[in-house]
Design a protein that fits this description.
Number of helices: 6
Number of strands: 0
Order of helices and strands: HHHHHH
Helix content: over 70%
Radius of gyration: 63 Å
Length: 236
């Protein structure tokens, strides 16, 4: 195996190992996202696309070269030479085997290289989706707690309003009782005032009668004083 195909084979083995590690089930996408967020990946990110397409181009060139080698050693001309010389037949089959081996190595390298990129992208997307879902779940939990708190506040307000309404009703009843009591007291006071006014009128009438009687007696007294007595008449 030449140096270039040895390098491609090691690259294929490395891709297999990396893809197997990426597919380990107990390593979550969040952990891979934390790994991918290391500073070294941020430093390599400007060169990542260039490296990816360069490796694709190199592997495609090697894949096409392997196809050319397979077609070269599987054509009719080498087989005619192999029928003439048995040693050439073994040599051609060895070349064909190496060409097919190189074809499989380069083809699987291209395939796993694309798969590895896709797996890394999907892991990042899954991690971002998980973080978004966690954030949305936290928001939903906060909204649920807020709704629950509002419901509890509404219940407390309703209870407070009911209590206040009961208090107001009780106060109104008490005020009605007090109003009724005051009305009864007012009626009693009005009847007492009417009786007092009647007594005052009676006393006024009585006083007026007494004054008239007094005036009459006073006038009679003046008349008696003004009349000459009988002794005076005899002296005359």
């Amino acid at each position: 195996m030449t140096l270039q195909w040895t390098a491609v084979a090691f690259f294929l083995y490395a891709e297999i190992v990396v893809n197997v590690i990426l597919c380990i089930p107990f390593i979550s996408a969040k952990r891979w996202r934390r790994v991918f967020s290391w500073g070294i990946w941020n430093w390599l990110s400007p060169y990542w696309n260039k490296c990816f397409f360069t490796m694709i181009m190199v592997l495609i060139v090697l894949f096409l070269d392997a196809i050319r080698e397979v077609q070269k050693y599987s054509g009719p001309d080498p087989m005619q030479d192999a029928k003439v010389n048995p040693n050439v037949y073994d040599h051609i089959h060895m070349k064909l085997f190496r060409a097919q081996r190189n074809l499989y190595i380069s083809g699987f390298s291209i395939f796993l290289w694309l798969i590895m990129r896709r797996v890394v992208t999907l892991l990042n997307q899954v991690a971002v989706s998980a973080e978004s879902s966690a954030a949305l779940q936290a928001q939903m939990d906060n909204m649920a707690n807020a709704v629950k708190q509002h419901e509890e506040d509404n219940k407390r307000l309703r209870q407070a309003l009911l209590d206040e309404e009961k208090t107001v009703v009780a106060k109104n009843q008490q005020l009605k009782l007090e109003i009724q009591k005051l009305e009864s007291q007012l009626k009693t006071s009005e009847s007492a005032v009417h009786r007092a006014q009647a007594e005052v009128e009676a006393m006024k009438k009585q006083a007026k009668g007494l004054a008239q009687e007094y005036d009459r007696l006073l006038s009679e007294h003046h008349q008696l004083q003004n009349q000459p007595s009988a002794s005076d008449k005899k002296d005359q």
